[in-house]
Amino acid sequence: MKFNTKTIHGGQHHDPAYGAVMQPIYQTTTYAQSTPGGHKGYEYSRTHNPTRNALENAFASIENGKHGLAFGSGLAAIDAVLKLLQPGDEVVSTNDLYGGTYRLFTKIYENFGIKFHFIGMDNADKINDYITPNTKLIWVETPTNPMMNVIDIKSISAIAKANNLLLAVDNTFATPYLQQPLELGADIVMHSVTKYLSGHSDVVMGALIVKDNALAEKLYFIQNASGAICGPQDSFLVLRGLKTLHVRMQRHCENGKAIAEYLNNHPKIEKVYWPGLKDHPNHDVAKAQMNDFGGMVSFVTKGNNYKEAIKIVENLKLFTLAESLGGVESLAGHPASMTHASIPKEEREKTGVVDSLIRLSVGIEDIDDLIADLQQAIG
Ligand SMILES: *Cc1c(COP(=O)(O)O)cnc(C)c1O
């Protein structure tokens, strides 16, 4: 089955009770048993729920995995991966991480004796310098948020395999429409489903997808034991959202390209970060690894003028000034004061998140209206 069919049918079955074409919302906590232990595969909804299971099967299908797990948020999914570790273990991670991931690693898991190394991974070999006998996990985000650095998953997976480490990839920005990390050698794919997979800015959810049965067992155990699951209503909404993932992504990419090119030619804009631009430092890796370049575009104003950047985001009318990304509607964000405010200024600026950086989540509206809005806001 090809990707554009999997988003609609992958891992899905008509409901056996009445043949409902859409997965029903099983809004129930528990399931009747005929005799103790005599049930139809479902006992309690933290452990299993038919609506959530249908969604988990869909996740596994679109990422070419074998097992999908759905959580109450992207961070809950990351949290479950970190629970595979023990005090004393070490993690090598990309340095321009999503702010919430950085916060979880440094403010929660460092307290439990886990050590993190945050490094640029432009050159995969650099990872070798940070691997010790205690290293257990490599955590990669690509493209990164908000600088759009693209990291070569295949090369990193070779290093992970050579050192017997798990490789987890946060695939939130790319989605499986653009890249499938398990095919490139990753062990775990993580999603903030809140973003493109849900696609309509109405659900907070996370997911993990894996191929390996033993790894899946461990993660299912953590999912049930820690309990950070999502509910059946939200599962239903995301099952519905997934069905249009491929058509939404196609338009996100088209609009992203048009806006990146428009900004790149704008006299008041200093620099545009979009992996599809030929002068993007990782353009070649992006071309090899991704099917297209996505709808996330960051840019810096001429002279890195903070006030100018704030004026632009305030002036935008069609782009809503808001956190988050990946919905059908266009959003603009100011990472330094919004999504990345939890990262210290000097750490932030080292990775390019300067005070005038603006991040756009380009939606699927008519491109003429989006460009007209940028035009009036930038002047
Ligand atoms: C939003 C986001 C997360 C966190 O997901 P939540 O659903 O907000 O918990 C993690 N990684 C990336 C890249 C994100 O954009």
Salient structural properties:
13 helices, single chain, Aspartate Aminotransferase, domain 1, 379 residues, Aspartate Aminotransferase, domain 2, binds pyridoxal-5'-phosphate
Architecture overview:
- The chain is of the alpha/beta class.
- It has 2 domains: 3-242, Aspartate Aminotransferase, domain 2 (3-Layer(aba) Sandwich), CATH 3.40.640; 245-378, Aspartate Aminotransferase, domain 1 (Alpha-Beta Complex).
- It has 13 helices and 12 strands.
- Strands 1-7-6-5-4-2-3 form a 7-stranded mixed sheet, with helices on both faces. A 5-stranded mixed sheet has the order 8-9-12-11-10, with helices on one face.
- Strand 4 (135-141), helix 5 (153-162) and strand 5 form a beta-alpha-beta unit.
- The mean pLDDT is 96.
- The structure holds pyridoxal-5'-phosphate.
Could you give a quick summary of the protein structure above?
The chain has 379 residues and is α/β, with parallel strands linked by helices. 35% of the residues lie in helices and 15% in strands. The protein folds into two domains: 3-242, Type I PLP-dependent aspartate aminotransferase-like (Major domain) (Aspartate Aminotransferase, domain 2); 245-378, Aspartate Aminotransferase, domain 1 (Alpha-Beta Complex), CATH 3.90.1150.10.
What's the CATH topology label of the largest domain? Answer: Aspartate Aminotransferase, domain 2
Shape: globular
Rg over CA atoms:
21 Å
Query: Mind summarizing the main beta sheet?
Result: 7 strands, mixed
